[in-house]
Amino acid sequence: MLFSFSRCIVCPALPISLSPCRATQAPRSADLLPPRASAATHHAVERPSPLARLPPRSSASTAGEDRVLQMSSTVPKSSNIFWHDCPVGKTDRQKLLKQKGCVVWITGLSGSGKSTLACTLGRELHTRGKLAYVLDGDNLRHGLNKDLGFAAEDRAENIRRVDAGLLCIASFISPYRRDRESCRALLSDGSFIEVFLNMSLELCEARDPKGLYKLARAGKIKGFTGIDDPYEAPLNCEIEIKELDGVCPSPSDMTKQVVAYLEDKGFLHE
């Protein structure tokens, strides 16, 4: 049999656009022709919906599907909105805080020292009287992004959800260049500072402070960066911190390197 049909509930991972079907219109659907169809006809075509030939749905089935559709639907954005300029702008806030806002984006393999550097740097900036905030990948997954996992698509969504301000220290594996560059594009004035902790996989796996590499090697974690998912090293990062003779630099030394950059570029004074 060339075609067969089934009723299913589709739960997409991302929002999709749907055109409403009016009561005066016959339901329609898009059918994809199978691979054995000729090349000339291998495309999506509209045809009367086969659902019209299916038996009526039970009330329980209808209620369940309606709930899914309600959860999946999107609310149209209002067009009757206007932008209001605020008399207090970015420059005014910088003068008040005596600092220039930036994002220090720390990237590297798991176990390379990202969270340690982020916390140590945050403490140093606080000691200097600077307002900084640390965004750590694991911590975000405990709260705002707890519905996301470690798959490639989920990590991209994690990064897109981050809304940074002031002296923001972001600590994420963020293994894909396209994700890091999309964040850089939002801060085109040079206030995106990419810090690459260039530690070898061997060193990170030997440290393995959370025991994640062991689980990944045992097949208990899928899509783990460095094991069965790639890490794309930065090509033009602002700061690169390398291991020394197979040893990770101390948190103090790494912090000094980042602070020196911030001082030199004028981020720590108005």
UniProtKB/TrEMBL annotation:
Q: Report the EC number(s), separated by commas if there are several.
A: 2.7.1.25
Segments forming a coiled coil: none
Source species, domain of life: Eukaryota
Q: What's the protein called, per UniProt?
A: Adenylyl-sulfate kinase
Which pathway does the protein contribute to?
Sulfur metabolism; hydrogen sulfide biosynthesis; sulfite from sulfate: step 2/3
The record's listing under CDD domains reads: APSK (cd02027)
HAMAP family, per this entry?
A: Adenylyl_sulf_kinase
Say if the entry is tagged with keyword Transferase: yes
In terms of Pfam families, this protein maps to: APS_kinase
